[in-house]
Known about the structure:
Blueprint: H1 2-21, E1 35-36, H2 46-51, H3 53-64, E2 67-72, E3 75-80, H4 86-91, E4 97-98, H5 99-111, H6 119-130, H7 133-156, E5 165-168, H8 169-186, H9 192-217, H10 223-239, H11 242-246, H12 253-264, H13 269-284, H14 287-300, H15 302-316, H16 338-351, E6 352-354, E7 356-360, E8 364-367, E9 373-376, E10 381-384, H17 386-391, E11 420-421, E12 424-425, H18 443-460, E13 461-465, E14 482-484, E15 492-497
Parallel strand pairs: 1-2, 3-10
Antiparallel strand pairs: 2-3, 4-7, 5-15, 6-14, 7-10, 8-9, 11-12, 13-15
Helix pairs in contact: 6-12, 7-8, 7-18, 8-9, 8-14, 9-10, 10-13, 14-15, 14-16, 14-18
Bound molecules: protoporphyrin IX containing FE.
Protoporphyrin IX containing FE is lined by residues 103, 120, 123, 131, 282-283, 286-287, 290, 352, 354, 356, 432-434, 438, 440-442, 445-446, 483-484.
Amino acid sequence: xxxxxxxxxxxLVATVGYLCLLGLFRQRRPQEPPLDKGSVPWLGHxxxxxxxxxxxxxxxxxxxxxxxxVQLGGQYFTFVMDPLSFGPILKDAQRKLDFVKYAEKLVxxxxxxxxxxxxxxxxxxxxxxxxxxxxxxxxxxxMLDSLSLVILGPMSQSPDAxxxxxxxxxxxxxxxLFKAGYLSLFGRTKNKEQDLLQAEELFAQFLxxxxxxxxxxxxxxxxxxxxxxxRLQRLFHKMLSAQHNLEKDxxxxxxxxxxxxxxxxxVAPAMQDKFNFMILxxxxxxxxxxxxxxxxxLLKHPEAMRALxxxxxxxxxxxxxxxxxxxxxxxxxxxxxxxxxxVMEETxxxxxxxxxxxxxxxxxxxxxxxxxxxxxxxxxxxxxxxxLSVHMDPEIHPDPTAFKYDRxxxxxxxxxxxxxxxxxxxxxxxxxxxxxxxxxxxRFLALSELKLFVLLMITHFDLELVDPDTPVPPVxxxxxxxxxxxxxxxxRFRYRLRPxx
Length: 501
Ligand code: HEM
């Protein structure tokens, strides 16, 4: 009898524990944001969220207002939608909202990389040294060289270089930016042909991984896809091995510095390979898709294309192809191109949609700009989705879904930086790079890479859509929240090398 009682007691405790785990008993406490657990135990709203995060969050904001907590796969996420209240979340000097904790788990799962203490800080200091300011000058030159090699190189050998060529615009842009970015950062050998072939092969595998990526992060892959992801991970670890790096000539200072740090901290070579895979992903996963959207907007908006070609002619003088059909830009021209800057900013406003996540480290109060206060629970996650709350806010950006190439230009042609919400000047008026401690440290390189690519394409090529009436394709809904979005399908275009002047 006593034994039965004991067994029943254990069963009861286990059941209650399990139900707690499922989040079934969680109730909204005083001062906490509205809580929406969804109707499915544990999963909560995960299915709707993963299907289309943008639409889901729009509905939640309509239902609950600017702050709400939702259950997603057993975890609780508090979304803050008022950009005037972002400041304390992003500044957070005391690390009470922790980015690293969240990132560590993700990179272990996706890249197999087990974070070394201090490497988040190290990545940012390596980037401050080599991806910004003076440190970026050399890399910009290398990037221009690589872009010329990747785009103009194959053409220069083709007898029909000035005939029309047709391709998918997304494929063309992603392929070009990936190969140029990879060769510039991970180095080249003396054999250019071989380098291009290797970069092409890597890109083909990268695309396969990229397609599976959103569902991999959400653990939604089928058994065959799991196997495929494992195979791709191993392949990348091999193709990007630190040993292989040593055999190359021009490994960028950025990568060399970071690998040196890992070696000095006793990180095993196999783990360095995984680090390289992570770095390949963060450095190449966004820029190609962003260049696609930028060129597509230019092709759909002739007034924007005209403005950029005029600016390019002014800034670059007559851009010529020299005998080797490479590019003779001065990279410094990138500092005098406000119209191109505005096109890039507008493209990223419309098509870059990252989620910023911070793990709540200890119960704490969130103070909103309105003066309201909300209690945050230890272990939950605070989430920002600036695409919806900033980029698409009609008060900050009137007619927010329209592409306006000069949205970020003042009437005198200088860069526009003053945007307002509720009569207040808003600091975060676009956030394609994230913000705070996880802000993209590659943003200056990414921008110059994108600008060089666009300049090169519009000055050296005639470009047109195969069907000029084709609409801008919608965003693939699976990509919301993962940085630069992808289109739901590719768009055919034609390009032809302009004859040398
Ligand atoms: C259009 C191109 C790009 C976009 C839109 C972009 C966007 C972002 C965003 C939103 C984050 C923060 C993610 C978060 O908060 O979790 C991030 C992180 C990062 N990005 Fe970029 N990125 C781009 C290109 C690049 C390039 C070219 C590099 C390097 C060469 C780079 C290096 C990194 C690194 C190392 C991180 C991790 C930072 C950390 O852990 O704190 N990114 N990027």
